[in-house]
Amino acid sequence: MMMNVCVLGTGYVGLVTGACLAEIGHDVTCVDSDVDKLAVLTHGDIPIFEPGLQKIVQMNAEMGRLRFSDDLRSALEAEELVLFVAVGTPTAPDGSADLSALFNAVATVARQRSARCPQGFMILVVKSTVPVGTCKRVQAVLSSHLPGSQFAVVSNPEFLREGCAVQDFMHPDRIVVGCTSPRALMAMRRLYAPLIGRGHCLVETDAVETSELIKYASNVFLATKIGLINEFARLCEAVGADVVELSRAIGLDHRIGVHCLVAGPGFGGSCFPKDLRALVDLAGKQERPMPIAEAVIASNAEHKRIMAMKICGALDGDVQGMRIAILGLSFKAGTDDIREAPAIDLIATLLDLGAILSAYDPHANTPAARLFPEVDYAACVEDAVSEVDAIVIMTEWAEFRDLDWEHLASVVSQPLVIDLRNHLDPERLASCGFDYVGVGRPKFNNAAYDAVPFLAISKGQSSSPSAA
Ligand SMILES: NC(=O)c1ccc[n+]([C@@H]2O[C@H](COP(=O)([O-])OP(=O)(O)OC[C@H]3O[C@@H](n4cnc5c(N)ncnc54)[C@H](O)[C@@H]3O)[C@@H](O)[C@H]2O)c1
């Protein structure tokens, strides 16, 4: 059954949510405070790179089920309304989640709903990732403007992964809904019925606190897996083991699982780092410290620092004046999102050490150029690597595998590839004449960098400027 939906915030989560809810038959209005973003969307384009999204945005807009507006008031006129809040919740200076965008949005909704539609029933769904207790605070704000019989607050955290967000939304491992209102719960079941009907699991929690915490628990588990496999990668290098074979073998154990078990440059992105910080902050405030979560944050920072040292080591210990090409800027393949991307940390460190950088990313050159205008951004890999002393792979874009590496060996100054994603075929690279350095794969590290004493890169040096 079609329902009236409004999505507040058309970022990576809000736009996917709005488009996918329209795709399963609902009538959706997406509202954003960013007029530039809305202008792009109303012209039929999308402001982010997300595979498959543009198509469903266009199709549903054409069918009249999906529209974009800055006019929240009109959207709030529907008597029966499901309103998603999907605004950003970045890290505040003290490490907690900055909820100012969320509460600004909620305060506006409360005021305008009471003025425009005092009779109906509105379900306010908190889609943003928020610390435990936030939904109760949202409830209090709405209560000061609307009678309790005319609204309910629901926690419905999002688990999609950028790069396969549409697929994840349409085929979720689970949909988590936390609410205390039977009427709202019935409505949420109706809203997601087309997905639940396909066998996707709806997890209902009667305490909103459980739902809010599930999101943080998921992310800390996943980040811990990545942190651990990166620590194993470093150990592998010391003892002569291979981390790729190791992670495959342990991942085959169903209790461990293969996902998030790939050694790399350290985790980044708009979720894991900030959500871990917010979780540690929440746990501290509750006087229930979480030393494992704290250790994962510290381990990841240390790993990024060691990866920068690895690059220095491969370049005889000093990158001052060295020309280095960074291939890949987004925090992972399939997205243009550079928020807390490992490449961003690395660029900051290498620039501080006096390296001369060029960079190429198929989708993220533009946002990176806003952060580091001093880097030379190239329109193709060949231009980026021309006359460089080293190529560093920072994002696992498929196209990097298929490059004509033989030809690239002829345009660089020094044929050295430092593959911090273990993304390329080391034997093929060697056959094209490249020295190859991977992560946790000492048998392929044919650039004898281990013999070079690592530079001491100070611990403070590799903290990325937030691109949020
Ligand atoms: N990006 C992900 O992969 C992902 C996955 C799961 C959960 N989340 C969570 O979802 C939330 C949103 O993340 P995102 O990556 O989509 O953020 P984003 O920064 O891409 O998008 C947020 C949008 O909200 C808009 N906005 C801010 N204040 C507003 C207001 N008052 N009214 C209308 N629009 C407003 C901004 O203009 C922006 O377009 C965060 O809490 C995040 O932690 C993100």
Helix fraction?
Answer: 40-55%
Query: Judging from the principal axes of the Cα atoms, what is the shape?
Result: elongated
Instruction: Please count the helical segments.
Output: 19
CATH superfamily of the largest domain: NAD(P)-binding Rossmann-like Domain
Name of the top-level CATH class of the largest domain: Alpha Beta
Give the biggest sheet. 6 strands, parallel
Bound molecules: nicotinamide-adenine-dinucleotide
Which percent range describes the beta-strand content?
5-15%
The number of domains is 2
**Which stretches are poorly predicted, pLDDT < 50 over at least 5 residues?**
451-455, 460-468
Structural class: alpha/beta
Rg from C-alpha positions?
A: 24 Å
Distance separating the two termini: 37 Å
